[in-house]
Amino acid sequence: MEDMNKKTYKKIMPIRLHLLFLFAFIIFTGVIIRLGIVQIVYGQDYTNEVEKQEDVDVSNSVPRGKIYDRNFNTMVGNSPLNAITYTRSASTTQEERLEVAKKLSKMIKLGTDKITERDKKDYWILTNSEKAKSLITSEDRQKLEDGKIAEEDLYQLQLERITEEKLSELTDEDLKVLAIKRQMDQGYPLNPQFIKNKDVTTEELAYVSEHLDELPGVNVTKDWDREYPNKDLLRSLLGQVSKTNEGLPQSLLDHYLSLGYSRNDRVGKSYLELQYENVLQGQKEKIKNVTDRSGNVVDSQVINQGKAGKDLILTIDIDMQKEVEAIIEDELRKAKQKPGTALLDRAFVVMTDPKNGDLISIAGKQVKNKNGKLAFDDYALGAMTSSYAMGSSVKGATVLTGYETGAIQPGTIQTDEPLYIKGSPPKKSVTTMGPVNDLTALMRSSNVYMFKTAIEIGNGTYKRSEPLSIDPKAFNTFRYYFNQFGLGVKTGIDLPNEAAGLKGAKTDPGFLLDLSIGQYDTYTPLQMAQYVSTIANGGYRMQPHLVKEIREPNPDKGIGSVIDSVDPKTLNRIDMSDSEIKRVQQGFKLVMQGPNGTASSQFSSKSYNPAGKTGTAQAFYDGPNKDKFLTPTYNTTLVGYAPADNPEVAFSVVVPWAYEDYSDKHSITNNIGERILDKYFELKSKQSKENTANKNLDKIEDEANTQLNE
């Protein structure tokens, strides 16, 4: 029995071993086949996967947001451009880019005017490698071996030894290639660089498109350029955008890079374009480039489609702006025909809604003589960046300062007479007026009334022919109250680089008297508009602003939905009482409508019920003509608002260096003021009628649609 069991066991064992070996053989065979498939069939794919790396920092430009006026008229738009770009990988060589440039030179035309001498030398070295090597002597190479010079010094020696004769070897065809390669070299790895984005013909675009497989890195796309339908209108305040070959401004490079910008992105460089860069720029299209270990792009994927920049709606009325600028030019042209106006070269107008700070128009013009004819440049920027002595137009602030300090009361009478102060020429008004109260002092522009108010504020005592002594702290008192109106401080406009004006440094008593009549500190035309607005609206200093709304872009309808609105902002309420402010308002109304008002000859008959204050300041020329620097001259100003009982528009007119001799004075400031107010109310009536007509038309269309639906 035992022997039988042993025999049976011996028979079963080989069968099991055979099955085990067979099973192991099958497994190993499967493994070998699988490894073969992986290595032979998919081996290269897996190798590529191992060598891949991702870069998500590449972006494509999108159209910049548009800028409209308050009535949705386009002020800044975008004109579409066909474009040809080049994107180089991290491993692309100079020789490879040269080959692409040679092929492209047969397909497109690119100007050669931007090629520099250095560009030519670099190109000559690249295309004449053997000749370039011969420019390096054995002594130079020995210095390199000895460590006396670096490798890059050899290249510099080559550049220095390339003669004009050698550069003359470059043909017109070489220059065409160089112009293209120059553009290609300016790009950063994996970032599209525009080779040509202006005047790209449809033939060029089509030809390049057909041969893209022969042009590694080249692509055809769309670009944009800023478009200004109104040409130079407000250009200095609208600002500038960097060009495609500029990229990020060097002064703001780190700031923009930290925000995710690419080095060749176009951005706002100044004023409105810069101030609202984050709104106008838009959301760029993001591309994920997949590269191999050598940096060659093997795949691209759009991870964010991008979105055009948001649109700005300004407070500016473009129709009014055009009229204001035309009026300034016309009046400057007339004034320049009169004697004593050699230094007259500019004028400013600021119009604002005194209730909310909306800037309806902000204009400035500089006049130049070009080939015997007058030419005008936009200088709206100067309304907020240049300051001048403004003269008597600030007397409203002086009177209110007198009220608040107790130096005078509403109705206080003072004698207008020449003041004789020891060591000083007589201080007087243009005409001696005798006893005048505060209203008459404003209406007829009494200097002496303001002088005596200032002396009282400074705790001084006037005695004929004796020195005048005042407390120097009175300068601070004046400036404290003037600042409340916006005089001598920044207005808060939503633009960079606003000027605050200049403060006189001396504290001699005579300068306090000059300060009281606007002939010491300097102010900007924008500050003057804020000052008169504060008086017009009952004492509230409103922050002026250019942007009214931010809206989504809408390619179909043009104007999209509102994202954000700029609410009126009160910066401060002046310390004076309502009754005191109304008293000065009454004085301002008399200036333009009273029997002896300094502006009544031009404004007393106006139906829009104006109020305001004129001003003339003895000043010294400090403009661009250095030969005439510090020549005595006169600045003329006018501030005002209308209607006097419910102001809807306030304004300042400033004409520096209007004439050199008082006997040659002319009425350019009042003329401009009269014409801009006339035009404002004329346009208001016209726009009101148009709006009524449009509403009636909409009503008729709605009724017709209703009937059709029925």
UniProtKB/TrEMBL annotation:
* Substrates-to-products reaction catalysed: Preferential cleavage: (Ac)2-L-Lys-D-Ala-|-D-Ala. Also transpeptidation of peptidyl-alanyl moieties that are N-acyl substituents of D-alanine
Q: What class of enzyme is it?
A: hydrolase
Name the UniProt record assigns to this protein: serine-type D-Ala-D-Ala carboxypeptidase
**What's the source species for this entry?**
Bacillus gobiensis
Q: Its family?
A: Belongs to the transpeptidase family.
Q: Where is the Penicillin-binding protein transpeptidase domain?
A: 348-676
**Molecular-function annotations in GO:** penicillin binding; peptidoglycan L,D-transpeptidase activity; serine-type D-Ala-D-Ala carboxypeptidase activity
Return the annotated region ranges for Disordered: 688-710
Q: Name one GO biological process term.
A: peptidoglycan biosynthetic process
Listed A to Z, the keywords are: Cell membrane, Cell shape, Cell wall biogenesis/degradation, Membrane, Peptidoglycan synthesis, Transmembrane, Transmembrane helix
**Its membrane topology:** Single-pass membrane protein
EC number of this enzyme: 3.4.16.4
Q: Which residues cross the membrane?
A: 20-42
